Amino acid sequence: MPRPHRSAPWQIADLFAHEREAIAYAAVVDTCLAEPAVARRLGKRPQATAENVRAAMLTEANVRRALQPCEESRRRFQGLLGRFEATRLRREYVHDPVAPATVVLCLLGLFFLGALAVASWTVVGLAALPPALAALAVHRNPLWRMRVRHNLSEAALAAVLWIRGERAGSAERRWRRDLQLHGVGPLMERVVEALLGDDVDSLLLPDSYDGLRSPRNRQYVIGNEAARQLARKVAQREGGTIAVSGPRGAGKTTLLESCAEEADFAVVVQAPASYSPYEFLLSLYITVCERYLTEHGQDVPEFARLSAFRRAARSAGPALRRVTRFLLFALPAGALVVLGLGAATRSAGVRYDDPALDTAQDLWDGLTDTTVAVWRGERVGQALAATLAGVLLWRLRRSARLGSLLSTGLKGVSLLAGYALVVSAPVSLLFDDDVRRNARDLVGQSPEMLVALAVGVGLAALMLPRDLEAHVGALPALPAIPLADDRRFRRGLTGVLLVADLYLLSREPSLGSVVTDTGNPLRAAGLLLGLVLIRAGSWTAPRPEAPLVTRCRNQLYRLQTVQTSATAVTTGPPQLLAAHTTSLSTVPPTMPELVSDFRELLTDIARERFLRRGRVVIAIDEVDRLGSDAQALEFLGEIKAILGVPHVHCLISVAEDVGASFVRRGLPHRGVTDSSLDDILHVQPCTLTESKDILQRRAPGLSEPYSLLAHALSGGLPRDLIRYGLRIMEIEDKTRFFELTDISRQMILEELAETLAGFRTLLAKQQWTPETSAVLLSFRALMAQLRHLCPCPSADLHRALHQVAFQDLDGRLGAAAGTLPEPTRLLVDEASAYVLFSLTLLDIFGRPDLTRRRAAAGGSPDGDPDLLAQARQELEISPYSARPLITAIRSAWGLSATPPEGALPGLPSPRSASCPRHTPTG
Questions:
Q1: Residues 631-667: tens digit of each pLDDT
Q2: 339 found inside a domain
Q3: Is residue 423 located within the same domain as residue 508?
Q4: Is the bond preceding residue 668 a cis peptide, omega within 30 degrees?
Q5: How sure is the predictor about 113, in pLDDT bands with cuts at 50, 70 and 90?
Q6: Quick one: pLDDT at residue 351?
Q7: Pair 670, 759 in one domain
Q8: Do 186 and 90 share a structural domain?
């Protein structure tokens, strides 16, 4: 029978067979409520609260819906939980206090097991006697036997209960996870959406907006059609100059940096606002040299204003400290090793001196006899062989393979000899009769020597070099030890093993006969010599510096320093000295020399990378900030000399004017772009789909209406798109608005107020008369309405917006309209068209139920939301082409294309205070 539900939620107590199930379900509900995806939605609307969501999830219908996808894991949990409860009830039924005989018998048994693990067989036999006597006494006493059996069975039942409890806990965790992922979690999302009501997408609920806060962060950059086009253009050419043209903020810099990141060698430089061709080329030359040095792991020369002595002392200081530290350890260590092994090496020299000298003398005599015989012409065959060997040696003087073979051979001989000496030192112990006899006696008398031998082997293994496997590839793979490469761990373990080995060896005084064997010093000398040979075999000579690295360093000294040399000559008798001084100073390179040297260096770098299937990219950014298109074209003409280097891709970001000049090449005449550029990429503003992808990457969870709003305000320019996305978050942070209607109205009105302030500054510079000042009054009335911004709809604000948006100068000013200068009329029309665009955005995004109205407008081609961004782009071209497009958009969305009745006559009164419903926003 299930236990009564005491701590489970009373709403769902009767829906589960066990109280633990109800508690687990309620815990999963609380866990899902704490998830960021759910928690950020709670409290945004009055009915969407955590209490209402929890109450909805604890209803019988929703509990059954949540449990249905997780029936399999739930049945397994119920089965294991039933077994656990049955075992627990049985243990409670058979529970009895522990008898003293059980305690004594268990303690004696533990004592016997301990003795069996650490003692010898004699001690084990003695330790087995007390447990055996105790077991015999328990067996002969029926009461004791019954109590002990009862206690032992209860202990076994406790072990089974623990195992079944662990299995039930594991099944519960699995069921909870399954319930959270497939049951409660998805159901709770639907419950929250239902409580939020209609038009959920109008709520501002992003997961994060870190990508908007760091617009230059490369990890948030996504590929688009422009990036793919540039990649194709670069891949189709082995080199050339490609211009990237587009409006400001279209992402030209991002394209250049992305292409440079994929290149094998790339340099990205910024075009100066006020440039000198010589200085720009000099800076680019220095940047290329520094980049090449850095890529090859070389330090860039530092030209510090210090004396030669101080520079030499500063550079020699670290080397002197390293040498001093080496000598402090090397000299005492060498002296101790020589002192310990001197006698052994001298005895070995005395023993093997005569045979070695005799063999060497025989070899030398044979060589000299053969040489003399060949010189006298007595051995013709050997003379021909010597001649051929000399010719072959001369032919191989420039062979890199021969040097490599000789180096490999010497390393192989050194490694082979070193390992042979290291192995022969301990192996020679097996062939020493005295050592074998003494060791056999010691091992037979004291088994502790086996332990000492094992400890010594472990100590020797720790003292071997860690890169042993790098020299012996044929060694079998050993299991990886996590702490094997930890230097502190190895040092500590080595010290412990050394102390343990010394302790074990000190317990056997007769060990001295083995340790003090006369051959041991010679074996130690062979072991050390072998380790030295292994280290020498693994040493590699430093590679010579690459020629291009040397050239880059020399060019940096040439371009960044002025070298002066002075020579003084003294002549004449000692009484009258005459000094003649000669001074020599380097001259900075001229522009032609600089261009020639730079092209030559860049050609060599590109040829090196091209042979390795690499790519060299020189990216020149911000050319469009030089000012006018004439200045940009003049800049291209000046740097034309460094373009067109073979196998070098030169990418230049230019303004739209320069791109247009390249497109109409030859019509009617050829320009500088025809001969400077090989191709051009026009970067277009983002489409609505690309804008959504950018915002989703930088602000995950941002709903579609907010992407539409940012896309419309930015005109599809990525830089402005990110700025408006961050502006949305800023408004939410300072106003605590979460609805699209409130945020969009606040944002559009703030943007409109800033733009109109700029227009009024420009209008103030025009000439006005009393008859034409009515135009300024309408702008002033609108600015007065925008002084206290509020997302609440205002009839006076819309009246002022309509007056400016549908401004008819001829109808309003009459004959005075003809006196307005053409620049003034154009400025008024631009401001009026922008206000009409802002009014359209307010009517579309500032009203509720955007989803339904968008679906209704989708039936017309002019109802595409992407047209709003196109209208924003058209405003930068001409207000006269933008107004018909905005009018068509308003008609598709069911908005009035003409001013409503009574909207134009009279000026609205200015808003004198902020809205009492909302706090001032600044």
A1: 666 777 777 777 788 888 888 887 775 555 554 454 4
A2: yes
A3: yes
A4: yes
A5: low
A6: 60
A7: no
A8: yes
* Contact yes or no for 215/727 (Cβ under 8 A): no
CA distance 57 to 170: 25
| Domain stop point among 134, 165, 197 | 197
Give the chain's largest Cα–Cα span: 133
Adjacent-strand bridge partners of 266: 617
The whole-number pLDDT of residue 5 equals: 43
Which structure tokens are listed for 491?
A: 């040092």
Question: Given this model, what pLDDT does residue 484 score?
Answer: 42
Residues 6+ apart with CB under 8 A from 663: 680
Res 871: pLDDT:
93
**What is the domain-level CATH number for residue 263?**
3.40.50
pLDDT band at 921 (very low <50, low <70, confident <90, very high): very low
Please give the Cα distance from 94 to 632 (Å, whole number): 97
Distance of CA 199 to the CA centre of its chain: 38
Distance (Å, whole) CA 241 – CA 672 = 13
Q: Please report the pLDDT score of residue 110 as a whole number.
A: 63
Helix crossing, 866-875 with 879-892: angle to 10°?
160
Domain membership of residue 40 (yes or no) is yes
In this structure, the answer to whether residues 264 and 321 fall within a common structural domain is no
The reply to whether the predicted model has a pTM over 0.85 is: no
Instruction: Examine residue 905 and state whether it is found in any structural domain, yes or no.
Output: no
Sign of the CA dihedral 215, 218, 219, 220? positive
Same domain, 63 and 190: yes
Please state, in angstroms and rounded to a whole number, the distance separating the CA atoms of residues 111 and 118. Answer: 11
Closest CA to 252 of 629, 684, 618: 684
Identify whether the C-beta of residue 510 lies closer than 8 Å to the C-beta of residue 446: no
338, amino acid identity: V
Among 26, 39, 59, residue whose Cα is nearest residue 180: 26
Helical segments of 95-141, H only: 100-118, 121-140
438 and 516 inside one domain: yes
Q: Angle at Cα 550 formed by Cα 548 and Cα 553, nearest 5°?
A: 110
Q: Which residues contact 686 (CB under 8 A, 6 or more apart)?
A: 224, 694, 711, 716, 717, 718, 721
Q: Are residues 156 and 34 in the same domain?
A: yes
Question: In this predicted model, what pLDDT tens digit does every residue of 397-417 receive, in sequence order?
Answer: 666 566 667 677 777 777 787
CA distance 707 to 718: 12
* Concatenated DSSP letters of 623-663: GGGGSSHHHHHHHHHHGGGG---TTEEEEEEE-HHHHHHHH
Q: How many domains does the chain have?
A: 5
Asked if 517 and 434 touch (Cβ cutoff 8 Å), the reply is yes
User: What's the rounded Cα separation, in Å, for the pair 61 and 187?
Assistant: 11
Question: Of 347, 363, 394, which one is at a domain's C-terminal end?
Answer: 394
% of the chain surpassing 70 pLDDT: 66
Q: How many CB atoms lie within 10 A of CB 137?
A: 14
Check: CB of residue 425 under 8 Å from CB of residue 523: yes
* DSSP structural state of residue 269: E
Position 28 scores a pLDDT of 92
- The DSSP letter of residue 919 is -
Q: What pLDDT shows up at residue 841?
A: 93
pLDDT tens digits along 670-716: 444 445 677 888 888 999 999 999 999 999 988 899 999 999 999 99
Does any domain span residue 910? no
CA distance 136 to 145: 10
CA distance 627 to 637: 15
Contacts of 635 (CB under 8 A, 6+ apart): 271, 275, 277, 623, 626
How many Cβ atoms sit within 10 Å of the Cβ of residue 51? Answer: 9
pLDDT tens figures, 727-765: 999 988 888 888 888 899 989 999 999 998 888 888 888
* Domain carrying residue 527: 416-473+482-537
Residues 181 and 40 in one domain: yes
| Residue owning tokens 């107004």 | 883
* Three-class DSSP category at 865: coil
